[in-house]
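Lab notebook, bench 4. Still working through the backlog of constructs that have no structural model yet. Next entry is a single chain of 293 residues. Request: give me the C-alpha cells for it.
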Amino acid sequence: MKIPATQVAIQGERGSFSHEAAERMLPGCSILACARSAEVFDRVEKRSASAAVIPIENSLAGTVAEHADLLVARDVFIQAEFRLRIVHNVIAAPGVRFSALRRVLSHPVALDQCRDFFRLHPNIEAVPFYDTAGSVKHVIADRLLDAAGIAGRQAAREYSGRILQAGIEDDKRNFTRFLLIRKPQARAANAREKRSSASASRYQHLIPLGANKTSIAYKLKNQPGALFKSLSVFALRDISLSKIESRPLRGRPWEYVFYADFLRGDDEPARNALRHLGEVAEFVKVLGIYPAA
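Model written out:
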C-alpha cells in the first residue's frame, strides 16, 4: 500500500517508538510531536495534521486504554496497522560511563518491561518519566552525569546520545501495534446511513486496496444472550475474530463497549454481519478497514 508523505502527529517526543513507527509506515513524513494523546486526535480532526500514528496495543502490556476510548469518541478512521519490535536501550549523554549511573528514567511501561535489568543492577534507581524519548532528551539536555534514559535507537540518533547497553527488555518477543488514522471527508449521509451507525460508506475513500481486516466498537443492551447474539453474526458467516475485549463506557458507569477485530475487508459478508450486528446492538462504530499487518 502506497500512501503519500504527509505531516503525521504522534504522542510524545521525537525519537519515540511512535516516531519510528510513523517513519516506517510513511517514509519521508514530517513528524509533529504532541504532548498529549487528546492533542494528537485534535490535530487530525481539525486537519492541522493530515494523519496520526498511535500505539494501540503492546504484546506484554495490553491495550492503550486512552487511545481505545478516543477512537470511539472522535471522528477518525484507521487506515493501516504496523507491528514494531520494541527494543529498549540504556542511553546517556556522551562521556557518561555505565558505572556512574545511579538513576535510569523512562516511561513506566518501559521500566516495567526491563525488570531484570534493575534486578541485576540494584544500585540503579528506576525513575518514572512521561516519555521514553523524552527521558533521553532530558538527561542529555541537562547534561546529567549519573543518569540515563531507556528508549529506542531512534532517540539516541535524535539527541546524539550514547547507547550504554542495548536490548535490555525482559522479553524479546515484545511488539507494539501502531495504527495510522485519518479524518474522513465531510459529506452528507443519506437516510439509510443515518439509521445505521454501522455504515462504512463515508469512509470508502480511506479504505486501501487489499484491506482484509476491520476494527469495530459496539455497545450491547444488558440482557441475557446479548453477547452470544453479537458473536453469532460473525460465526454464521464464517468470519474469524482476531480480537475482542471490553472497556468501560465513559460517562455511563458499569456499562461497557466491546472492541473487536475481524478478518474481512469491505465485502458483502462483512457488510451483512455489520447490518445484523446493528440490529442487536445499541450502537456500532466502524473504527477502520485496512490490510492486516
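Notes after review: The first strand starts at residue 7 and ends at 11. The chain is about 30% helix and 30% strand. Flag for follow-up if needed.
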